[in-house]
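To make the argument concrete, we let one protein speak, a sequence paired with a row of structure tokens, as a model reads it:
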Amino acid sequence: MGAMNSLIPDIERFTEDYDIEAKKASGRDGQGELPQSFFETYSAMANTYGGFIFLGVQEKPKGKFTIKGISNPPKVLKSLWDGLNNRQQVSINLLNDKMVDVIEHNNTSVIRIQVPRAPRRYRPVYVGTNPSNGTYRRNYEGDYRCDEETVRRMMAEQVEDARDAELLEYFDFNDIDENTLKAYRKVIQKLLADLKVPFKLQDTKRIDQTPVHEALREALVNSLIHADYTGRVSVLVVKRPDLFGFRNPGIEGKVTNDRLKCITLAHPHDITKTLSGLVKQGFLESDGATRGTYYFFPGEPPHAEANLVELNSEHSHLSSEHNQLSSEHSHLSSEHNQLSSE
């Protein structure tokens, strides 16, 4: 308890942020009561980065924590554990006894609750019985209700950290949909049509495929395989005289200034300014330094597998600076939204 007491002076220097929340929790009788908003903050932190909730602490005036204390901590703790273990109240309990501390100070108490970030298989963590209207995420110091598409994506990713990694057993060529296969072949034919093929022999046999053919085929296949089909956005491909573009629904994991320069015509200074603004407003978070800075959605720091996927996507484009075929330049991007052949 001594170590906990040493935290009291620090509390009054805290301010609310994405990982810190203060709630007065005094109740009508002034003895202490678990506020209903607690579970919204619990959901938001569990679906984002995790964080700490202090009960018995008031943020007033704005930006200053003041210790009000809780006179009857057992009453509040009973409501806390009852609610966490009630599936009508919240979808899952992520806490254990070591994550809840009662800190004694000047004949009163502050309850400190550490909320861990929920593993992907448990997200979304939601309030009530309906994830569509009870799922929250944390941005800056606020708890915001998630839209339905974000909730659907979380639910689709519950079973596996990366759905791409799941091996589907007992399928064979008989399960291939003929119409889908015909559509794929039609798109491939349009993509590869009119590509220049230099004369080249290998063991007296002419080679009709070039690195550009292989790259286009791989880009299309990757776009189809790694697409998130739970949303309303479809896979889109474009062919123009100066580029080939591929775009699929889903989160890339992270983005960098250099990556955005590949897929937009905006000036690098404007890209940096926009990204910095999104970070300040809490819509993005950043890590790294200088040219190595990367940006990601709050609570979704890229893990090792996401890095590999993005690394593959970043290097799967051919730019006119590095690839030349019969004096025509081709490169891949993800900038455009339709398939057209000119």
About this structure: Confidence is low (pLDDT under 50) at residues 1-6, 303-342.
